[in-house]
Amino acid sequence: MSYFLLSRFLELLVILSFAHFSFSTQIQQTFDQCLSTIQVPDTFFTPNNPNFTTLLNSTAQNLRCLTPSYPKPQAIFTPLNEYDVQTAVICAKKLGIHLRFRSGGHDYEGISFTSAMDPPFVMIDMSKMRDVNVDLDDNSVWVEAGATVGELYYRVAEKSSTHGIAAGLCTSLGVGGHITGGAYGSMMRKYGLGVDNALDVKIVNADGKIMDRVSMGEDVFWAISGGGGGSYGVILSWKLKLVPVPAIVTVFNVQKTLEQGCTKILYKWQQVAPNFDDDLFVRVIINPMDISGTTKRTISTTYNALFLGGVDRLLDIMNSSFPELGLKKTDCSEMSWLESVMFIAGYPTTVPTTFLLTGKPAFLNYFKAKSDFVKHPIPETGLEGIWKRLLNEENPLMIWNPYGGMMGRISESSTPFPHRNGVLFKIQYVNIWSVPEKEAMKKHYKWIRKFYKYMGQYVSMDPREAYVNYRDLDLGMNDKNGDNTSFEKASSWGRRYYKDNFMRLVKAKTEFDPDNFFRHEQSIPVLPGKGF
């Protein structure tokens, strides 16, 4: 390159950088000015604010999405009430500013606080809206979007030791986004998903109006209750049904390794777990582990369980239906339902239940995740192939969650979440690493994509189903420039997440948000002829 061309190239870079800086500053200033009617200090943060990065990182679950290569918001707004959210939406629409919304920061691809799309964006962080109002007489609870499920569980148990909520296993999940994707947990076989127990919702639509189930209509309520977050409006709060739980429940962890015959035991689990008593939930956590005192590794399978009852009835069920596990009374612990929440989430018994009020996650990692649904038992030869591949990676993890029970008695179309009757169990794949470097990310991405390809022969097909709350941008994404995406293109992930419910979601979106104001990498698209 000649000196002249090099000089012109550097000059252009400076101009583009200044233009980007000016555009970013314009977004920050105009949005801030529009929000000035709220007149509440310490609710608007730009990158120049010393608290900006701390706030951005505060609830981000996947550290991968905080690395320098990931775009950051032009500003963060932390509303204190419903009016603040209304104002933010009205300002953003008026000024043509793209918004992202974060309730708990658990989106696996970080799309609540970062973006793989071109338009710059402002993040609305709901963490200051976390009220929980339990009404035992009405057998329900209203919970704001920024509260975590751990806070929700604690407040319910505070009022009653015999009421609970059918929702997530991870206690730092933000309620707002969690429920919109389905919300499975350890009582799913007894009571179904969080969305199966959703009674009402409050949202802000694209015109800045607050709407509930009646005013939005049943089609939109249906779409929000399992159709994923960020497509129809801003979730303000959910009204959820309280479910009965015993004063005393039973939990256990039982580990089996290759040396203890874990392959045959897991093969049997696939056949019996979906048919267990509805009160029993036994998931399996699978990972490679070092063999103490050697340089060798083995496979660990940990059976992590909640039983809605006492230990004696649990032992009767396990001894008759799954004696291969060899469960003993000494493996089991009886406790309150709230204490079982802590146990299932992996907290040590020394951590008090009041920790749930902090809203903090138990673990933070760099990771990439995927999901699958299994409809036929994976043969022992297939399990051996899984072991071989897991042992060749540093820190992979699989979690197998059993279905059956209530999950098989709810129709595929009752909510957008379609993975119901006929599913034996769901697989969550997680590949974890501990450093931010790009090369590490590329290496671990490559492994999980290859492993996912291998698993294709053993899981659902046409479509190969996936869980929207384990978001995976490898399945496809909307047009990077932010323009409307065709139905055909969006179907690449839409049918995997929602199966035949995808078309109904698109129709509801087209009617409710025809300008496609609420959009992100995998938001529901609008039909042709609509929108901007």
UniProtKB/TrEMBL annotation:
Residues 69-245 form the FAD-binding PCMH-type domain. Pfam families: BBE, FAD_binding_4. InterPro entries: BBE, FAD-bd_PCMH, FAD-bd_PCMH-like_sf, FAD-bd_PCMH_sub1, FAD-bd_PCMH_sub2, Oxid_FAD_bind_N, Oxy_OxRdtase_FAD_BS. One of its GO terms (molecular function) is oxidoreductase activity. Residues 1-24 form the signal peptide. Coiled coil: none annotated. Keywords: FAD, Flavoprotein, Glycoprotein, Oxidoreductase, Signal. PROSITE patterns: FAD_PCMH, OX2_COVAL_FAD. Its cofactor is FAD. Belongs to the oxygen-dependent FAD-linked oxidoreductase family. PANTHER family: OS08G0158400 PROTEIN. This is FAD-binding PCMH-type domain-containing protein. It comes from Lactuca saligna.
